[in-house]
């Protein structure tokens, strides 16, 4: 089966920066080489900043991660496009940009606008603990006043809010804010709590709300979110797929592998290995069209609907999009 892949979450930009690795060929989970067999490969690159950095250094680091990616030889030579809108179906790899952990906005609403100008289109506002944005999955706190304003501004500008890492109360408020603008919410890298009850996975109620909003969910390959233990196998993803499908997610389920940000099952070394999931699903008599939807089409139709507005390329070294 010739597959394309549109993945909603990886931390590869952070690893490229930390380990001085290029995008074309490297020792990471994501490279142009390891994803070359996909008909088309589209990836949301999350700019996550280490929690040990203070907010100011974190904001600077986020911009460094972005500049580092834009100055990568594969990007500069045009082998991969960095885009702010759904890329065309031309077989060319493309990257969209996200921020993971918006505490680096540091109570400054101007930074929401700046992030948008820098080409950020996916906003994962929370990560851990309580921040200027609000409560993460490991707390029971909701959004702060600043968090509400920041997410409202982000959604107004056209960013997609991401519930992954949010507490239940924060998630509910994010859903309400997005609904006010008639915009969807996503969970870029979270599995089902009903299958694996960890705080980073989604309750059935949250999954239903995401689906009702027109949003998508990215399946996370982190072993602890698959089955709660470090010894998960790739087949442990199947009960999650089944559960999401039972809740009606056939046109909303995607991958958000958490590549280069988490411990993955031992059978998964690079993103190429995600093709094993297709084989497992075929063996269980899932249709090819369902598999194509999961790997690519669901994320692609979501992006073409909600990340429209011109297909602008982010130019290397351009401080702002063209
Ligand atoms: Zn994450």
Structure explained in plain terms:
The chain is of the alpha/beta class. It has one domain (5-306): Alpha-Beta Barrel (TIM Barrel). Helices cover 35% and strands 11% of the residues. The chain has eleven helices and eight strands. The chain has helices at 12-18, 55-70, 73-76, 110-117, 145-157, 168-180, 204-213, 223-227, 238-246, 275-283, 288-306; strands at residues 5-10, 41-48, 81-82, 94-100, 120-124, 160-161, 217-219, 253-255. Strands 1, 2, 3, 4, 5 and 6 form a six-stranded parallel beta sheet that branches. Strands 7-8 form a two-stranded parallel ribbon. Helix 5 (145-157) links the parallel strand 5 and strand 6. Helix 1 (12-18) crosses helix 2 (55-70) and helix 6 (168-180) packs parallel to helix 7. The longest helix has 19 residues, at 288-306. The protein is globular and about 50 Å long. The N and C termini lie far apart (37 Å). The structure holds zinc ion (ZN).
Write the layout of secondary structure elements.
Blueprint: E1 5-10, H1 12-18, E2 41-48, H2 55-70, H3 73-76, E3 81-82, E4 94-100, H4 110-117, E5 120-124, H5 145-157, E6 160-161, H6 168-180, H7 204-213, E7 217-219, H8 223-227, H9 238-246, E8 253-255, H10 275-283, H11 288-306
Parallel strand pairs: 1-2, 2-4, 3-4, 4-5, 5-6, 7-8
The chain binds zinc ion.
List the main descriptive attributes of the protein structure presented here.
35% helix; 6-stranded parallel sheet; disordered C terminus; globular; 11% strand; TIM Barrel; 322 residues; two-stranded parallel ribbon; alpha/beta
């Amino acid at each position: 089966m010739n597959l394309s892949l549109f993945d909603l979450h990886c931390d590869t930009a952070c690893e490229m920066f930390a380990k001085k690795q290029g995008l074309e060929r490297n020792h990471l989970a994501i490279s142009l080489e390891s994803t070359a067999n996909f008909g088309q490969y589209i990836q949301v690159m999350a700019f996550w900043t280490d929690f040990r950095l203070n907010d100011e250094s974190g904001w600077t680091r986020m911009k460094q991660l972005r500049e580092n990616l834009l100055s990568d030889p594969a990007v500069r030579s045009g082998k991969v496009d960095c885009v702010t809108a759904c890329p065309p179906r031309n077989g060319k790899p493309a990257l969209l940009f996200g921020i993971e952990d918006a505490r680096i906005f540091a109570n400054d609403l101007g930074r929401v606008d700046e992030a948008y100008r820098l080409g950020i289109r996916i906003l994962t506002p929370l990560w851990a603990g309580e921040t200027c944005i609000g409560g993460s999955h490991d707390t029971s706190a909701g959004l702060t006043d600043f968090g509400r304003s920041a997410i409202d501004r982000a959604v107004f500008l056209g960013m997609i809010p991401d519930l992954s890492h949010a507490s239940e109360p924060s998630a509910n408020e994010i859903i309400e804010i997005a609904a006010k603008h008639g915009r969807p919410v996503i969970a870029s890298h979270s599995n089902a709590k009903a299958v694996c009850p960890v705080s980073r996975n989604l309750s059935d109620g949250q999954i239903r709300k995401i689906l009702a909003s027109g949003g998508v969910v990215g399946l996370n390959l982190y072993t602890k979110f698959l089955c709660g233990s470090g010894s998960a196998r790739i087949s442990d993803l199947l009960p999650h797929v089944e559960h999401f499908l039972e809740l009606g997610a056939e046109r909303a389920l995607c991958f958000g592998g958490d590549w280069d940000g988490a411990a993955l099952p031992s059978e998964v070394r690079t993103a190429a290995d995600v093709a094993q999931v297709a084989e497992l699903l075929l063996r269980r008599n899932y249709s090819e069209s369902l598999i194509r939807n999961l790997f690519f089409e669901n994320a692609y139709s979501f992006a073409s609907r909600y990340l429209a507005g011109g297909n602008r390329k982010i130019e290397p070294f351009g401080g702002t999009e063209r």
